[in-house]
Amino acid sequence: MPILVMKFGGTSVATLDRIRRAAKRVGREVANGYDVIVIVSAMAGETNKLVELVEETSHLYDAREYDAVVSSGEAVTAGLMALTLQEMDVPARSWQGWQVPLVTNSAHASARIEEIGTQHITAKFAEGMKVAVVAGFQGISPEGRITTLGRGGSDTTAVAFAAAFAAERCDIYTDVDGVYTTDPRVCDKARKLDRIAFEEMLELASLGAKVLQTRSVELAMKYKVRLRVLSSFEEQTDEAGTLVCDEEDVMEANAVAGVAYSKEEAKVTLVSVADRPGVSAAIFGPLAEAGVNVDMIVQNISEEGRTDMTFSCPVGQVARAAMAMNAAKDRGEINFHGLIADNEVAKVSIVGIGMRSHAGVAAKMFKALSDENINIKVITTSEIKISVLIERKYMELAVQALHDAFELHKAG
Amino acid sequence: MPILVMKFGGTSVATLDRIRRAAKRVGREVANGYDVIVIVSAMAGETNKLVELVEETSHLYDAREYDAVVSSGEAVTAGLMALTLQEMDVPARSWQGWQVPLVTNSAHASARIEEIGTQHITAKFAEGMKVAVVAGFQGISPEGRITTLGRGGSDTTAVAFAAAFAAERCDIYTDVDGVYTTDPRVCDKARKLDRIAFEEMLELASLGAKVLQTRSVELAMKYKVRLRVLSSFEEQTDEAGTLVCDEEDVMEANAVAGVAYSKEEAKVTLVSVADRPGVSAAIFGPLAEAGVNVDMIVQNISEEGRTDMTFSCPVGQVARAAMAMNAAKDRGEINFHGLIADNEVAKVSIVGIGMRSHAGVAAKMFKALSDENINIKVITTSEIKISVLIERKYMELAVQALHDAFELHKAG
Fold first, then answer.
1. Which superfamily does CATH assign the domain made up of A259-405 to?
2. Do B407 and B361 form a contact (C-beta atoms < 8 A)?
3. Which entry of A151, A195, B123, B376 is 20 to 30 Å from A168 by CA?
4. Yes or no, beta carbons of A83 and B62 under 8 Å apart
5. ipTM at complex level
6. CB of A225 within 8 Å of any CB in chain B?
7. How far B276 CA sits from the closest chain A CA (Å)?
8. Is A230 helix (H, G, I), strand (E, B) or coil?
């Protein structure tokens, strides 16, 4: 039998009614001839409740105990889903991560999957079981302790199972009906994409489109898992949702697939840094040690032997960044005249594998922003992405202008 | 290091505050020089919530999935208790049943403990860990699935750990401060016992005193585990609570240790049963098959070749009993003239190992009841117990009269 992986997120299993609705979808795929592996999250709100209990108990908590506590929500949903399927006469049983086993490394609270044992579930399929319900987000460490994969880890669980079992497809059921050209709340012309390439999805995911967790997309790309994102709240046809797939399978020819944005950005400039070989390492080493997630980096030569160094990071990390820089200055590792932080910026990006073959994409982007009198503060580019830092108050305007300029409301 | 087992029930870990209070008690025992194994229940209300979810999902549910779901409450408490102890600088970690492992048979939802692996926890104690926090009520089947031990299973878990680790004592922290001569709500002269013999506790537990689960007492008796019942809501001295121990260690010389009662009893009489060899089997076989818990049995010869057969069972099972009897009559397996059910009865019992050596205990009991004009409907006796069935409205009066007659308000 071909195998299908179906993943249901927290809102899709938030009540017994919704679990029943999800189970019906699973039943339909069984009727279609699939052996199904269902990955479930905890019922919406449950994991947060457990995290709060842990945090209220202990500030610097032992991540191993944190994992033991917060993994319990998924175990509950898995059992309830198996029971619901059995009620519908679909042969099903539940597995917790350690029972599969889904083996991870020992990085508790953000563990990485190392191996999925397929033997046990495969044997049950051979005996006539039709659905294996697996608790998402959790695994077992080499020491035999429960681990969790970090936020959104159930997406990663689903993709990893699809890879391990060579599933025909991995369907991610969520509360949106697919991947959009941009956030519909910001731009009402946003259009659902039928298909998107792994690389594009990866850029969009890491730029803040919250449909899929970045790691799950990376994993899908690596193992060529066809990933479909679709809504658990609408009746589905075969062409529903968005298929995340290989570049070759994306039919659309638009140069740009989508516009992403991120609000909580800050721009930090070290003014007049004494320039010498190794100065970049002297700056970004201490920032990394201080846990500052540096995103964009720009260096301008301002005068002979001195340079302005600008970088962006999340707003909440500016104070930490300033502290690290001043400490490095005090230790004599770097020398600069001043530090300027601008907390009122946002990042807007266009993403598309078509950029590779389309000339003039950057020029078109800058013109669209300039036509709206939006000043660009920092630019970075990758092969399939162009990001700009702008004043935050222009963010929505910029997204709409770019969506129009690249005609994303039209299918390519 | 000597090992102590401490068990905290649901009300003793109902909130983070109460978990902290329980953890403080554990910390004191660590300071006293013990390595401690803590057995925890789910936070009060959690297990019921999970059971409701399962029952709402499925009427004839798969007990294996039921176990997977309802066992999660204990896992949460175990992790939180370990974190709380760590916050107090007490080296601790949590174990779930399958991690220990606590191996049970495969009778899901009411599994029996078969073996407790001591190696893993013992090794951790040797490394300097002071407290092993174990999720009560749960184990793992030979098939690798999670099992639960049935209601009150955490008491049994605690006693089994005390036996497996040869613990010095097993302290059961609960919401009452010990075992009483009778229910203080029924008799205000009820006195807390300092000590009680296993056999007596067993009779009291099976007669409805809800302090300890019957199986846990059986297990403690079998493995000579010194069991102490005490309140988690009061400051404790060394002599607090009630010690359940070997007969030889019970100092008190009262013939009777306590008075127990059970309200939900019914008396069923099969009138004029045709008597022949094997008639008892013909009656009680079908009752057992119908799931009727027959308690007391009395047979009177009423006339030549016929007999009246009387038995007691829980009120809720009378209809089922009548159905089973009429069906057996229809099948020609038994013959009787009528079936009379009396739903307005209660059982009152006196229990005490002293009965063995004290003559006249039964006579004293019957006189005390007769002095109050209480009519005895059925009597049964065992070596250390005498039970009578009486009209339910006299129950409280009977308990008080017996408590007085045997002077249970005085220590023996």
1. VC0802-like (3.30.2130.10)
2. no
3. A151
4. yes
5. 0.79
6. no
7. 48
8. strand
Q: Which phi and psi angles does A227 have, rounded to 5°?
A: -115, 130
Tokens of B336: 């009787």
Task: For CATH 3.40.1160.10, list the domain ranges present in chain B.
Answer: 3-175+194-248
Count of CB atoms situated within 10 Å of the CB of A326: 13
Cis peptide before B286 (omega within 30 of 0): no
| Sites in chain A below the pLDDT cut of 50 | none
Shortest Cα distance, chain B CAs vs residue A106, angstroms: 16
Are B258 and B244 in contact, with CB atoms under 8 Å apart? no
For chain B, the first-to-last Cα distance in angstroms comes to 36
**Superfamily of chain region A3-175+194-250:** Acetylglutamate kinase-like (3.40.1160.10)
Other CB atoms within a 10 A radius of the CB of residue B280 amount to 14
Continuous H helices in A256-351: 279-289, 318-330
B53 — contact with chain A (CB < 8 Å)?
A: yes
A86 contacts in chain B (CB < 8 Å): 58, 61-62, 65
Residue B24 has a CB neighbour count (10 Å cut-off) of 13
CA separation for the pair A209, A232 (Å, rounded): 19
Residue B305 has pLDDT above 70, yes or no: yes
A78 touches chain B (CB under 8 A): yes
Tokens of A69: 């506590």
B 122-151 near A (Cβ less than 8 A): 144-146
Condensed to tens digits (0 to 9), the pLDDT of residues A150-188 reads 877 999 999 999 999 999 999 999 888 889 999 888 999
The CATH architecture to which B3-175+194-248 belongs is 3-Layer(aba) Sandwich (3.40)
Instruction: Reply yes or no: is the peptide bond before residue B101 cis, omega within 30 of 0.
Output: yes
- Token readout for B12 is 């003793």
Does the reported pTM lie above 0.90? Answer: no
- Number of CB atoms found within 10 A of residue B303's CB: 9
Q: Is A140 helix (H, G, I), strand (E, B) or coil?
A: strand
Residues of chain B above pLDDT 90, percent: 71
